[in-house]
Design goal:
Elements: H1 4-16, H2 22-35, H3 38-48, H4 55-68, H5 72-88, H6 92-108, H7 112-125, H8 129-141, H9 145-158, H10 163-180, H11 184-190, H12 207-218, H13 222-234, H14 236-239, H15 244-259, H16 262-275, H17 284-296
């Protein structure tokens, strides 16, 4: 709901009454991210150090923050440490989940081969329900639509009555496959079941709107694409430290450019490049963004 002060006060009250743990610390980390408080984020990561079952989740969360600013090398290192910590704590499925998260991050910055490798490693480590789902999405976004479709079909057959999968994950994966296969019309149709729920806040990143926006971009429908990416920009507390947050600025720049609004496009490119001022220079999506921005000058 974006009520940051209320959230902070509630967490402070809980701690004053003797409650603590990963859920509270994770929320404190999220609030620190929204406030740009790097020191507080580091304190929460330090709190989790050496705590089995908690350290790995916080490390993966911190990896998201590094990726948010385009620091993928740091994200990869934190992700590796998260996986190692989870395996040491005898939680292979958690480790596999962190691998698939890294796969998603790699896919969204344009490293398709690395995305496929991370997803495959996650499946090999512990092919649980949501590991398969996340791996399918990472593979679809990373350019292996065929393997993603195989995983999706198997999951749909195995989980025909799982509401969360049916109204969110299955349509999302289906649409990601359609976008990869240059079928934006099918992608938009596939995402219709998600519309009532995509701003519910219990999934994160507002992924369906991002994929729908990319489908509209493929259709050269700039205004419709911009409206989808604006959802992510307007709801920073829902997107949090998810990588799609900064990427929404790049995608909306592309939408404005298609619409012929070069002034808004320049501003959005500048917003993205400002967020990624310290990003790893070799990321494919950053190279593309810089080249597109240069053409507008």
């Amino acid at each position: 709901m974006g009520r940051i002060k209320n959230a902070r006060d509630m967490l402070a009250e809980a701690q004053q009454k003797g409650f603590d743990g990963l859920l509270i610390r994770g929320d404190l980390y999220a609030l620190a991210f929204l406030a740009g408080d790097n020191a507080e984020m580091e304190r929460e990561v330090a709190w989790a150090a050496g705590r089995p079952g908690e350290e790995d989740q916080m490390l993966s969360n911190h990896a998201d923050t590094q990726a948010y600013y385009g620091r993928m090398e740091k994200a990869r290192d934190l992700s590796r440490r998260a996986v190692d910590s989870a395996v040491r704590a005898d939680s292979k499925e958690a480790g596999a989940t962190w691998l698939t998260f890294q796969g998603l991050r790699e896919a969204e910055v344009g490293n398709g081969a690395a995305a496929q490798q991370a997803a495959t490693r996650g499946l090999a480590l512990a092919p649980g329900r949501y590991v398969k789902v996340l791996a399918a999405l990472a593979l679809a976004r990373g350019g292996d639509a065929a393997k993603a479709k195989t995983l999706l079909d198997a999951a749909e057959n195995a989980e025909p009555t799982n509401t969360l999968l049916k109204v969110h994950w299955f349509p999302l994966i289906d649409a990601a496959i359609d976008v990869d296969q240059s079928a934006p019309d099918r992608a938009i149709l596939a995402l219709e079941p998600v519309l009532p729920y995509e701003l519910g806040g219990n999934i994160g990143w507002i992924y369906p709107a991002y994929i729908r926006g990319q489908a509209y971009l493929a259709q050269k429908n700039g205004p419709a694409a911009a409206a989808e990416f604006q959802k992510l920009i307007d709801h920073p507390a829902l997107v949090g430290n998810g990588l799609l947050g900064p990427l929404a600025h790049l995608q909306i720049a592309r939408a404005y450019e298609i619409s012929g609004d070069s002034a808004k496009a320049k501003g959005a490119y500048q917003d993205f490049l400002g967020l990624w001022k310290d990003a790893d220079p070799d990321l494919p999506i950053l190279k593309a963004a810089k080249a597109e921005y240069a053409k507008l000058q």
